[in-house]
Specification:
Elements (H helix, E strand, L loop, with lengths): L4 H46 L8 H12 L4 H14 L1
């Protein structure tokens, strides 16, 4: 059975809306990816500026270094203080 012109019009509109939804979702994912990339690059630059020795390290070595730093006395308190200060700004 053939579809009425009104049914065809509605189906076309549904298809257009679905395509628009896909475009919006792709745009959102792209923006989130760009923001994450920007954040990671910025934090990596800070890490290298504060600890120049990490420039020559491999990823696992940097991870081990940061884990070792996190286990130093006072590191948890320093992190909590920084987090608290962030919330007050």
């Amino acid at each position: 059975m053939d579809k009425s012109p009104e049914e065809q019009k509605v189906e076309k509109k549904i298809g257009q809306l679905q395509n628009h939804q896909k475009i919006l979702l792709n745009r959102k994912r792209s923006e989130e990816h760009r923001a994450r990339t920007h954040r990671l690059i910025g934090r990596g630059a800070i890490l290298e500026a504060v600890f120049p020795a990490v420039v020559g390290m491999e990823g696992e070595e940097v991870k081990a270094f940061l884990i070792a730093l996190s286990r130093l006395p006072g590191s948890v308190e320093a992190m909590e203080a920084a987090w608290k200060n962030k919330g007050e700004k």
